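Incident log, structure service

09:12 report received: a user says their structure output differs between two submissions of the same chain.
09:20 pulled the input from the user's history:
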Amino acid sequence: MTRLGLTRRQAGLLAVLAGVLASTVLTACGQGTGPRADVTGFDKRATAVAAAWRSSGAIEAWRTGLVPLGEFTQVLGFDDRSDLKDAFAAGRIGVSGTLPDTTGMGEVRFPDGSIKVVRLVGARTAYTAFIAAGQGPCPTDARCSGVVITGATLGTTTLLTSRGEATVPAWRFSVAGLTQPIIRVAIDPAAMTVPPAPTLEAGDGRPPTDLGVEVGALLGVSGNEIRYRVLIGACETNPRPLLHEEPDIIVVGGTVTPQPAGSACTLILVAAPVSVTTSKPVGDRPIVEAMLGKAVVVSRFPSG
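09:34 re-ran on a clean worker, output below:
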């Protein structure tokens, strides 16, 4: 199976990487020993991640169902209208007139030619799914520009899924002042299986501190070999993969040797390649990372 695309979290990590690479800030990092080298909780976490995927039905759906990995809202461009780009980012989105909310059925076409019939949501429901709650084009007492949707037609778009790039039904929203529509996948959420995100145990909204380093993009899979990147500090060394393998799912992670205590280091995040060998060919098993339990996929924007 070809694994393509970029998850929301991976897109965020790449954005962070781009930002810190543009900076040459030096910081004193006194982390001679620390959580990035302590991976005592990896196997426990990986077992929990695997169990959560299995109990939710996500593993079976990965092979035979509809597991979305791409973004449901797709923006094709803003025609050099920075005001509308900023308005969209701020959630200042409104509708001129009304949008239909009739539902129906549609088809998802996978790369292997197979088809899945799914229920659709109406244009109004699709619209409310991507606007920010409580926001609109502009407050009544403020001067600002907003994105104004003038209509919607049902068409198709491509969506990354666990079974490759699928052609799926989508609402195409026309926008005043733009030549390109805003697209929103029209599939009823009940027809899709969203992989679970295991509960974070740290109690403060962060993963446990004994899981090692975060996993970036998948580089490739060949037989029993998985190649991927781990995200480490510029002065951390010796990146090593972590593997938890079960018959129906694979969980990966990574660890490093921390920089010497009290040393100064350039504040740069590095995506370091690692590889690991499984006991059996990877096949169609999902590959997920331990920290957030998210699928690891190939980046659309590879570096190096």
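09:41 both user submissions now match this output. Likely a transient worker issue. Closing.
09:42 reviewer note: The two ends are 23 Å apart (CA to CA). The CA atoms of residues 213 and 227 lie 16 Å apart.
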